[in-house]
Fold this protein.
Amino acid sequence: MKNICVCGGCGRTIETEFIYCPWCGQSKMQNNDKAALESVFKSLELKQAEERARRLAELEKELDDLEQDLSILALSAEMAK
């Protein structure tokens, strides 16, 4: 198994032999830099939270659209009686 570390720029795992991250090009960070790791993970958590919020907003809009369509269908069915 190869040793890996976390890129300080993009947060992806890279092999310790790499001098630069193949994903973002940033010079790799030290394996034992705890503060840098915490910063990377906080950044990743923030990105995940933003993505969840964006997806939730999309789903809420879809649900509102479906509820409106259902209301129209229910009204149409009621008027057809």
